[in-house]
Amino acid sequence: MSKAAPLIAGSIAALGLFWGGIAFGDEGLWTFDHFPATQVEQTFGVKIDSGWLDHVRAASVRFDNGCSASIVSADGLVFSAHHCLASCLQDLSTDKTDYMRDGFAALTRKEERECPGLQVEVLLSISDVSDRVGRAVVDKTGEAFIQARNAVIAVIEDAGCAKDPTLRCEVVNLYNGGQFKLYKYHKYTDVRIVFAPEYATASFGGDPDNFNFPRYELDIGFCRLYENGEPVKTPQHLSWAKREPRDGEPTFLSGSPDATNRTLTVAQLEVQRDLRLPIVQTEVAELRGRIIRFAEESPENKRVSADPLANVENYFKFNSGVQLALNDKALLDAKRVEEAALRAKVAADPRLAAKIGDPWAEIAKAQSVYADTYLRYRMLQGPSATLFSYAITLVRAAQERAKPSTERLPEYSDASLALVRKQLLDDRSVDPGLDQLLLEFWLSKTRERLTADDPTVQLILGRESPEDLAARAVKQSKLADAKVRKALWDGGLAAINASDDPIVQLAIRLDPAARESRRIWEAEVTGPSEAAAARITAARFAIHGDTVYPNGTRSPRVTYGKVAGWTSQGRTIAAFTTFSGLYERATGAEPFQLPARWIAAKDRLNLGAVFNFVITNDGAPGISGAPVLSAAGEVLGAEFDGNIYAVGADYGYDERTSRLIAVSASAVTEALTKVYGQQVLVKELISGQSGSSLKTPPRPTPSPHPRQPSA
């Protein structure tokens, strides 16, 4: 990775592509209501009309955990990536039943198990509310800008869903404040796991193969949507491809990419490179080491830390690639050229210049405040420990629910409150050892970063060490019990203040300082930056018209591209891997260890069949699990990763080398049929109809758990 990643920025700069949101080649994170159908038809000779887009939208799924998926049968069957369902598998596992290690297979509807805390959403409609938001924030800056914007958004969201419990409304900030759209979703709170392979199969190759290709992962999982105790009828489902993807064929990806930074100014990129990333990476590297040590202490520790460790390793590796990209002089040089060109065009138009002003200078000024306040703001947001997350949610919800929706923190508005409550009160597993590790780590790093003399640090710790406070708080806390959490939620602020739970008390002590650091951050960093960025966006619209697409915002998008390998450093990488490559890569030792059932199934499999493949589609984190579609709307597979060049997608896209990685639908069918004996599930996929009425086949013999010899 260290050799490849610096090429990311250089290759983009060499093409002269820079990221004012202007599309080149297969670039673009397009919204469903602004898809470049004419450009696609001219490039690929295929027609994508509104009917095609509406059908795909109705069958595309957004997970609240940051993933994407698709509906693939008439009975609410959802296809996604294994790592998108890993937290569900972990929550349902015990010290005696490990679904991460062994996989999960429900052969009847009664065996499908609800995923605690998981909510998924399907987009119903998009409407433009830019004028309403614009009128509310006109001539406002800083804290007043943030408050006015949040207030009007809360009103729009509340009215948009009219308190319908099956709906969720979200005002999406597009083009850095250039547009605001109301996205209305149907939400599903009863999501049940149907099938997932073993972790060793889903993550074959582990961290060494992450962000690399060739790959051989069956990173897939299936769940089902339920309402009122019954599977949801979903006639608008996508069709499952009965064929393999073809080299060069057009592909379309429907997912919800996370926030991207393609329109950041030079000043913003520099503070990302010089301040934020070094701080983040130092902490993530240390946390990774602590979790690895924890996992080595016992088999149970290894079980409960499998998913958290994979997430930390993935985050560290991703940020390493981003850091290397930002360190490449070519990236910022190209950005300076693009920025200077845009400013020159604005200056050449007196009317536009009067309207736009100098937002670049305003953003640069805000970055000095960023540098002064980031560390404190970051540390006071609290740890990722589950029990603390429960506690701070209870403390803040109790305060925010007492206010009108328009005056609350946005995450506690009426439109968001149902999801907050579900995530808080669903019964999920909590490992005290892992939670203690995460709480102790945050306490120690906060003391280190802010110093022992900081009043907030002294208030948090008192006279205890981070180690002693974390051990005592986790041992004495009762927040792992969902009934205790519900009593505190129902009891409101009085119950919270009366609670003697040590983690609740810790959250109470932290909250005032955390709120104040957030207020300063929004008033002096994000508020001025967003107001200025909206004017830069207005300039781009004025100059480039509708060739502009918005940054990722976790809202549903459609991208286009094709199946294609790439050439780099004189080496050509083919677009496909096959089952035979999987067996050649297996060594018998983690992370290249095949489960016993795969070794036994080798002679039954079509070893020449396509396993994983790569596509040129644009993308970003958050689209994991998204369906890769043919021009006919067939599900050719599901995206689960990108190559090392795709790491730079946060800042830009290079069609020549950036590739997303998917597992093929044909490989899924092959594995389900010949390795897992899942004929009922395959029947449902192929026909699009429920296979529940079919005769249940014998349950496959589970694979032994000790290490298996190499194939």
| Text of the CATH class of the largest domain | Mainly Beta
Helix content percent band: 40-55%
**Total beta-strand segments:** 21
How would you describe the shape? globular
How much of the sequence lies in strands comes to 5-15%
- Mean pLDDT across the residues is 91
Low-confidence stretches: 1-22, 692-711
Compute the separation of the termini in Å. 28 Å
Main sheet attributes: strand count, strand direction, barrel closure: 11 strands, antiparallel
CATH architecture of the largest domain: Beta Barrel
Q: What Rg, in angstroms, do the CA atoms define?
A: 25 Å
**Structural class designation:** alpha+beta
Number of separate structural domains: 2
Q: Given the structure, what is the number of helices?
A: 25
What would the CATH topology of the largest domain be? Thrombin, subunit H
Topology readout:
Blueprint: H1 7-15, H2 37-44, H3 50-58, E1 60-63, E2 68-71, E3 77-80, H4 86-92, H5 99-102, E4 104-105, E5 113-114, E6 120-128, H6 130-137, H7 142-161, E7 167-174, E8 179-188, E9 190-196, H8 199-202, H9 206-209, E10 221-227, E11 230-231, E12 239-240, E13 250-255, H10 266-295, H11 299-327, H12 329-347, H13 350-356, H14 359-379, H15 386-400, H16 414-425, H17 432-450, H18 455-461, H19 466-476, H20 482-498, H21 502-544, E14 557-562, E15 566-568, E16 571-573, E17 576-578, H22 579-585, H23 596-600, E18 610-615, E19 627-629, E20 634-642, E21 660-664, H24 665-674, H25 679-687
Helix pairs in contact: 1-12, 6-7, 7-21, 10-11, 10-14, 10-17, 14-21, 15-20, 15-21, 17-19
